[in-house]
Design brief:
Order of helices and strands: EEHEHHHE
Strand content: 5-15%
Helix content: 25-40%
Radius of gyration: 18 Å
Shape: elongated
Structural class: alpha/beta
Strand order of the largest sheet: 1-2-3-4
Distance between the termini: 37 Å
Largest sheet: 4 strands, parallel
Number of strands: 4
C-alpha cells in the first residue's frame, strides 16, 4: 500500500469553548497549547453585565490564538441591540427604579467592549456568512 502525501494541505488547530459565563479559566482548565482559531460558542456571560463582558474579553485575550471568534448564546442577549431593547421595553414596568442599563450598559455598549478588543484578534460574529484571511 502506497502512502499518499498532500504537501498543499494546511493544518489548522481549533479551540472550541462555550458557557464560560463571565468567569476566568480555572488554572487546570486553561488551554496550554496554541490554536490557530479559537471559537467561543455562546454564553460568554451569566448576567449580561458590562463587567461580565470585560471578564470575557480578558479570558479571550489569555488564549494563544491569533483569531478568536464569538457567537452569542441566549445569555448574551444584550449583544443584540434589537433583542436588548425589546427585553428592556417588556420588563420596564416590573423594574421600577432598578434600571438594568446601569449594570448592562446602553444599547450597543456591550458590543463595544468586544469591538475595542479587535486588536487582540477578537471578533464577534453576527448572523450570516463570514470569511477570514
Amino acid at each position: 500500500m502506497e502512502l499518499i502525501t498532500r504537501p498543499n494541505l494546511v493544518q489548522t488547530r481549533f479551540l472550541i469553548i462555550s458557557d464560560t459565563r463571565g468567569e476566568d479559566f480555572l488554572p487546570a482548565k486553561k488551554p496550554v497549547k496554541p490554536a490557530d482559531v479559537a471559537i467561543h460558542r455562546g454564553d460568554l456571560i451569566e448576567e449580561s453585565t458590562l463587567e461580565d463582558y470585560r471578564v470575557s474579553v480578558r479570558l479571550l485575550k489569555a488564549i494563544d490564538a491569533p483569531l478568536k471568534l464569538l457567537i452569542a448564546g441566549n445569555h448574551d442577549f444584550t449583544m443584540g441591540p434589537t433583542i436588548y431593547e425589546r427585553e428592556i421595553a417588556s420588563a420596564w414596568h416590573y423594574l421600577g427604579d432598578n434600571n438594568p442599563k446601569k449594570a448592562n450598559g446602553d444599547c450597543g455598549e456591550p458590543r463595544q467592549v468586544f469591538d475595542e478588543a479587535k486588536d487582540a484578534g477578537i471578533m464577534f460574529l453576527n448572523k450570516g456568512n463570514h470569511g477570514f484571511v
